[in-house]
Design a protein that fits this description.
A 5-stranded antiparallel beta sheet has the order 1-2-3-5-4, covered by helices on one side. By secondary structure, the chain is of the alpha+beta class. The mean pLDDT is about 95. The protein is globular, with a radius of gyration of 14 Å. The protein is built from 3 helices and 5 strands. The chain has a single domain, classed as 2-Layer Sandwich (HIT family, subunit A). It binds guanosine-5'-monophosphate and zinc ion. The site of guanosine-5'-monophosphate (5GP) has 14 residues, from strand 2.
Length: about 120
């Protein structure tokens, strides 16, 4: 775990966050600068820099990330209205924090295509 990683520090509690969900493999918290009424970041406790920074051993972790996100969507009551999962990756993808995270966005109609 790189000790300069913002999300590793959030997972360890060194930097405070508003927890939404936690299990052995995944931690989720509210985005500090919400882009929608519901905006949650779902991160693996293990440091992976991006969604494609992986090997076969991480297959189960990717499943855990989506399963956790689905639980959070249920808790936030977004199932009926709909929602979006986003994984920004690299420069063109708009990634700014290089610890894999899945955005859950909901609570308003979301435009398509994204900017
Ligand atoms: P990215 O642009 O890498 O896909 O998303 C990074 C997200 O992390 C952004 O939506 C940004 O608002 C959020 N973020 C950045 N710093 C913090 C922080 O210190 N706390 C929380 N809760 N979210 C943060
Ligand atoms: Zn990290």
């Amino acid at each position: 775990m790189p000790n300069d990683c913002l999300f590793c520090k959030i997972i360890s509690g060194e930097i405070p966050s508003k927890e939404v969900y936690s299990d052995d493999h995944v931690y989720a918290f509210y985005d500090i600068n919400p882009a929608a009424p519901a905006h949650v970041l779902v991160v693996p406790r293990k440091h992976l820099s991006a969604v494609n920074d992986q090997s076969e051993e991480h297959e189960a972790l990717f499943g855990a990330l989506i399963v956790a996100a689905n639980k959070i969507v249920g808790r936030l009551g977004l199932e009926k209205s709909g929602f979006r999962y986003v994984v920004n990756t690299g420069g063109d993808g708009g990634q700014t924090v290089f610890h894999l995270h899945l955005h859950i966005l909901g609570g308003r109609p979301l435009g398509w295509p994204p900017g």
